[in-house]
From TrEMBL, chain A:
Domain ABC transmembrane type-1 span(s) in chain numbering: 92-307
The organism's taxonomic lineage, starting at the top: Bacteria, Bacillati, Actinomycetota, Actinomycetes, Kitasatosporales
Topology with respect to the bilayer: Multi-pass membrane protein
Record InterPro entries: ABC_transporter_permease, MetI-like, MetI-like_sf
Region annotation (Disordered) ranges: 1-28
Protein name per UniProt: Sugar ABC transporter permease
Entry's transmembrane regions: 33-52, 96-117, 129-149, 179-201, 284-307
Localization (cell): Cell membrane
Family: Belongs to the binding-protein-dependent transport system permease family.
GO cellular component, as recorded: plasma membrane
Keywords per UniProt: Cell membrane, Membrane, Transmembrane, Transmembrane helix, Transport
GO biological process, one term: transmembrane transport
Pfam families to which the protein is assigned, alphabetical: BPD_transp_1
UniProtKB/TrEMBL annotation, chain B:
Pfam families per UniProt: SBP_bac_1
Name listed for the protein in its UniProt record: Extracellular solute-binding protein
Taxonomic path: Bacteria, Bacillati, Actinomycetota, Actinomycetes, Kitasatosporales
Organism expressing this protein natively: Streptomyces liliiviolaceus
Record-linked SUPFAM superfamilies: Periplasmic binding protein-like II
InterPro entries the UniProt entry points to: Bact_solute-bd_prot1 (IPR050490), SBP (IPR006059), TAT_signal (IPR006311), TAT_signal_bac_arc (IPR019546)
Gene3D superfamilies in the record: Periplasmic binding protein-like II (3.40.190.10)
Superkingdom: Bacteria
Length: 314, 428
């Protein structure tokens, strides 16, 4: 008996789990209900308040709905209408322009501000705070201030007059040629400080030894920027780009407060067109279809960027 | 250690339970299909956010509470927010009870969807029995139910400052030609003859020009039919309106589409612009001492054969069909229709509106007397672009009219686009 016991015991133990499995076996096999609750309750909340309305949005995009009566199913009619809707096509063009201009300028100017203000000199904190200040203000309040600046008798026109450029006076927000760009300025004004802070943090993380080495090798300021600073900022760039893309596509408040997409749709973005179609013209089906387009666009841009970022990381 | 774990676990369990409870209560609130509570005061959602109008509403609510039969809690919301939120209020499970809004086609659109309370009981009260026939039909839905209680109305006209006209040596014009002469004279003095105020968030002010030119050229019946979708915006009749408007464009304030009507009012009061086609509501934001100096004249007649029509929008209240405080709502509405309530409102506001109750006294000023006569002489009364059509149609007009003011030569394509945009709303 003892022999067999000795023989059989190792046999039973042979398939015994290796240390990692053994460790897992010692711990609780089932997830404790409390932990499960902590996962499921937020999931339920998210499902109820985010996923479900989003799915409903997709369904509403296939309907014609005035927000009061029951929606009627119209299939892909809303999307077909979009193909022939000049305002939609204009708004898409403006959104792409916004993405490029607003996104590009805020990254470039944010980086420039960070480079200038990264070194600890006397008073630099003040300048950093001043540049960051617009981020703290609500965009609607910011827009009100800029509305006053752009008024026909506003600060900007008075300034132009006083420096002898009176012929450049403009109703900046009421002219279809200037409205989109005039609206972009306050948006940039706010964004640059935010991007600057991200870059300053990135610049602080660069090992000074790299600059020393570059200097020893005879690299000039431009070469140091190109071959040391920019490559070292790659990880920050990823964050900045994601922030910029997301902020560009959701830009709404500043445009709505200043021009409402006007005059006659000249500063219309997809987001403002969606809002006015849904909540002013009360065509919630078409508005939902526009929201789907914005979602697809945002998802597409962010996904393609993330895929590239991951590929580079590998 | 064990103790620590236990207490942490307890804490977590407690937090989890609290979270779940909060979530469940959230679910209950969000899905409650019941009507609003039948207790507490009647909620009165008001879009009258100009300082004087808001203060006047507070006076009315305070006076109602003093009467002792019930209480109302006033909730003032910015006009633009109110307008976009109204469908949400009315369709929500727990809506506010009573709302400031407009009768006619605007109220009827909600009545057709069974969202408005039948106010037949209110209309049987002695105060409303004396209301004019026109007001009766304006407040009756297409299905024949009374859905609205009107309290005040006001008029639109060409407003100016008496002292400025005297200073410039000009007087009120009697005919279209007189009007053009007046514009010429003002322009030669370096004044913008016509202020507009269709910039900022008040592009709708430009619709007044469209309304008036259309009712003067094509008549009120055609105008109402056009706004109801029975005619097209690219019809030759509508084109005539813009041909006439083009004659006037050189006299408009060049910043007309860049500043809101409040700023245009400031220009008018300070004498930078000569006159403005506006409703009396602009006075709610004007300094009280300027009120005595304000006067107006009738929008000039263009074709004497067309019956004289004026824009005189009526304001008042409707109630949600889903209110749980039916009796209290009826009591409040009856009070709002009394001469007393309307006089309190007029006293507290700029006093430029007229009461609907025939027994109520208006502010009695020369301006108001002239305004009353102005409306009484009209053969037809229109409300305003969005009130005679729908709020959904208003953005199409804002777009077309501001574009016309900036690019009058493109009127052909502007009208084609307007018709296309309007058709989408009518067919929705």
């Amino acid at each position: 008996m003892p022999d067999t016991a000795v023989l059989t015991a190792p046999d039973r133990e042979a398939p015994a789990p290796p240390p990692p499995r053994g460790r897992r076996n010692r711990g609780p096999r089932r997830t404790p209900p409390l932990v499960l609750a902590f996962v499921l309750v937020p999931l339920l909340a998210e499902a109820l308040w985010v996923f479900w309305p989003a799915l409903q949005g997709f369904y509403l995009a296939l309907t014609s709905w005035d927000g009061v009566s029951a929606p009627t199913f119209v299939g892909l009619d809303n999307f077909r209408e979009m193909a022939h809707d000049d305002v939609f096509l204009d708004a898409t063009g403006h959104t792409v322009l916004w993405l490029l201009l607003f996104g590009g300028l805020s990254a470039v100017l944010g980086l420039a501000a960070a480079l200038v203000l990264q070194q600890e000199r006397r008073g630099v904190g003040f300048y950093r705070a001043a540049l960051f200040l617009p981020v703290v203000f609500s965009l609607v309040a910011t827009a009100l201030v800029w509305q006053a600046i752009y008024q026909p008798d506003g600060v900007l026109n008075q300034l132009l007059e006083s420096v002898g450029l009176g012929n450049l006076r403009h109703a900046w927000l009421a002219d279809q040629d200037t409205a989109l760009y005039a609206v972009m300025v306050p948006a940039l004004w706010r964004q640059i400080g935010y991007v600057m802070v991200l870059y300053v943090a990135g610049l602080k993380g660069i090992d000074p030894a790299l600059y020393e080495a570059a200097k020893v090798d005879g690299a000039g300021a431009w070469q140091r920027l190109r071959h040391v600073t920019l490559p070292q900022l790659r990880s920050v760039n990823a964050v900045v780009l994601s922030v910029i893309v997301i902020d560009s596509l959701r830009s709404f408040d500043v445009v709505w407060s200043l021009t409402r997409g006007g005059p006659y749709h000249s500063s219309e973005l997809l987001s403002t067109y969606m809002y006015s179609t849904a909540f002013q013209s009360l065509r919630l089906g078409y508005g939902s279809a526009l929201a789907v387009v914005i979602f697809v666009l945002a998802f597409g841009v962010i996904c393609s960027y993330l895929v590239r970022a991951f590929r580079e990381a590998d | 250690m064990t103790n620590h774990q236990t207490s942490r676990r307890r804490f977590l369990a407690g937090a989890g339970a609290a979270g779940t409870a909060a979530l469940l209560s959230g679910c209950v609130t969000s899905t409650s299909s019941g009507k609003s509570s039948s207790e507490g005061s009647v909620t009165l959602q008001s879009n009258l956010s100009a300082p004087q109008a808001k203060a006047a509403m507070q006076d009315v609510v305070a006076a109602y509470a003093k009467k002792g039969s019930g209480k109302a809690s006033l909730n003032t919301v910015a006009a633009e927010t109110f307008r976009t939120q109204l469908p949400t209020y009315l369709t929500s499970a727990n809506p506010p009870d009573v709302y400031t809004w407009y009768p006619g086609s605007v109220a009827d659109a909600y009545a057709k969807k069974d969202l408005l309370l039948d106010l037949g009981e209110v209309w049987s009260s002695p105060d409303l029995k004396g209301y004019s026939k026109a007001l009766n039909s304006l407040c009756t839905s297409a299905a024949g139910k009374k859905v609205f209680v009107p309290t005040t109305y006001y008029w639109w006209g060409m407003f100016y400052r008496k002292s400025n006209f005297a200073k410039w040596g000009v007087s009120e014009p009697k005919s279209w030609d007189d009007f053009l002469d007046l514009c010429d004279k003002l322009k030669s003095k370096g004044i913008d003859p016509i202020g507009l105020g269709a910039g900022g968030n008040t592009a709708w002010v430009a619709s007044a020009w469209f309304d008036y030119l259309d009712i003067r050229i094509n008549g009120a019946d055609y105008h109402r039919e056009l706004l109801a979708g029975k005619h097209r915006f690219d019809d030759p009749e509508v084109r005539k309106v813009f041909d006439r408007w083009q004659e006037l464009l050189p006299y408009f304030d060049p910043n007309g589409t860049a500043v809101a009507f409040q700023d245009a009012t400031t220009s008018l009061l300070s004498g930078r612009s000569g006159m403005m086609l506006i409703g009396t509501f602009f006075a709610d934001a004007a300094p009280k001492d300027a009120l005595d100096d304000i006067d107006f004249f009738r929008f000039p007649v263009i074709d004497p054969k067309v019956p004289l029509a004026e824009e005189a929008p009526t304001d008042g209240y409707f109630a949600s069909a889903r209110t749980g405080r039916h009796d209290q709502v009826v009591d409040l509405m009856r009070y709002l229709a009394t001469a007393e309530a309307q006089e309190i409102y007029i006293k507290g506001s700029s006093g430029t509106v007229l009461p609907c109750n025939p027994d109520a006294k208006d502010a009695g000023t020369a301006l108001v007397k002239k305004g009353r006569a102005h409306i009484e002489q009209a053969a037809e009364i229109t409300q305003f672009f969005n009130r005679d059509s729908s709020d959904a149609l208003q953005p199409t007009a804002d777009n077309a009219l501001t574009k016309f003011i900036a690019k009058p030569k493109q009127i052909g394509s502007i009208l084609t686009d307007w018709q296309r945009d309007a058709a989408k709303i009518w067919n929705a």
